[in-house]
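Re: duplicated header lines in exported structure tokens

Our pipeline writes sequence and tokens for each protein into one text file. With two proteins the header for the second block appears twice in some exports. Here is an export where it did not happen, for reference. First protein block:
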Amino acid sequence: MADERTSKAKRYARGQRRLALAGIALFTAYAAAWIATGLSRRVGDALAARLPFPLDAVAMAVLFGGGWILLDLPLALYGGFVLPQRFGLSTQTVKGWALDQAKGWGIGAGMGLPLLAGLYVAFRRWPETWWLPVGAFWILFTVLLAQWTPVLLAPLFYRFRPLEDPDLVARLEGMARRAGVGIRGVFVIDMSRRTRAANAGLMGIGPTRRIVLGDTLLQGYTPEEIEAILAHELAHHRHRDLPLGLALGSAVNLLGFLLGARWLPPLVRALGFPRLDHPGTLPALALAAMAFGLATGIPLRAWSRWREWEADRAAIRWCSNPGALASALRKLGEQNLAEPDLEAWVEVLFHTHPALGKRIRAAEARAAAMAALAENGSPSAPPSDLCRSIRSE
């Protein structure tokens, strides 16, 4: 049975990776076709002649983005609905999946089109130094988005309700309090309406931060396993991984804007555009942004994997229960069809977390070492107050 589950997880992961690579290749071909055929220049000229600035750029985004949505729809349907259904993960209907897609497109347009208009305004107003105001605004936007996602965006997709298990609520709120992480309560979201996968974590930052458990996690996990999962998540917040990640991502984006200010003007002129704020430059900007994201994603994912290892170590140190962490990770892997062991290149290119099998084996090795110490009569390191006081309450 274990071999069968592993084979199934590998096939599912392989299918998702192929779809991701196909999406990159298809978008590259799509954007390149707009540029190579002269379509982006002709459409941009027509829009600039008929619409005031920057509405011409917004209209270009609607046309270019709308075409991409239609072209990508078969891949999105297969990866988001057909493949999870085939492997027994999805509980959605086609109608439910389509509604989620429509919500995502609406949110993307509602936020993305004003941001794009602002970008083109910055191109025109500060042709040499646009990267500074754009970078500053982008940092502010990402911080606000992280803070208000639990309040404004997540409820569009999931129903939140307070956890009704008072003992588990007390355990989890006590953990957060002793970890020095302020929260606004413990909530359950209805993941089961979409998937059989399970998840848990902390959502939001500052005054909107809350503990969130998928309803699929409450079925089949012991309180100790949920405690171990939350200890891992609390470690991220106690280590300030979220603000550090935002700071690192902001620095990378600022570098991208700086490089764009230097290299994009000669690039678009070489492609036949008179200036950077011409609406027809959008496909070229999209290609440049994708290339930069692919290149910088590798070191950013490496940083993320390091922080995940540190969170695992902290969860074990705080609770002195590596067996619970190992069993929770194993259950999550089986339930979510996570590939347990990865080839090195797959982990480097695609994953923000270390391979699940490595994390499980590390926790099991620590559990075995603690058991050996106990058999020999040697005291092992006691749990920190974070979990010890929970068990004594």
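Second protein block, exported in the same file:
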Amino acid sequence: MVVLRSVLFLLLQSVLTIVFAVFALFTFPFSAFTRYRLITGWNRSVVWLARWICGIRYQVIGLENLPDEAAIIMAKHQSAWETIALPILLPPMAIVLKRELLRIPFFGWGMAMLSPIAIDRGDGRAALKQIAEQGKQRLADGLGVLIFPEGTRVASGVVGKYGIGGAWLATHAKALVVPIAHNAGEVWPKNALLKHPGLITVSIGPAIDPSGMKPDALNQRVQAWIEAEMALLPNYAQTATK
């Protein structure tokens, strides 16, 4: 049944992607916030399909930690699930992503309409400058910035190398940083067709004020909180099922 449900989910997700990509092109005249609300209808649909077809549920803890102003979100990266779900679980934000994703037919078209920060990961210095410049502009416009400091998805239980981009932006823009841990990789593994039923826990940490901190120190503090929280996520899942 897992194979059957996973294939059905993939087919429906593909159809939704094509439909919303074409729809996204017609949202160009609207403001960034209006485009965001309309286009993330795709995200809501996919998360709904994942629940009702694959049995992937989720819970969010720590919502009270989200600041009122636009902030920088630094999140664990295990799965495609968080890239789809976080934009609808959190306030509107610009996602930092690799530029080649925008070249993917249909999916890339829709992403381009969400004011992302598309970087060339092969040129680290230029990417850092781009994150700082465009990130400041997005924050000034009232959009948060979502960055996955590990850069690429890592398997469940693995700690990737935390890039400096998010911390660099935070210290230069003097914006709060919100760390996020989750265990989506347990049910929706990276690069895997099969999606398994289960409960994903998304844990939002207390906002960190970067004032007086160097990027390296801030990055280490974010990593320490996320990885410590990762060890607690199974306990949250057990509590939710009682």
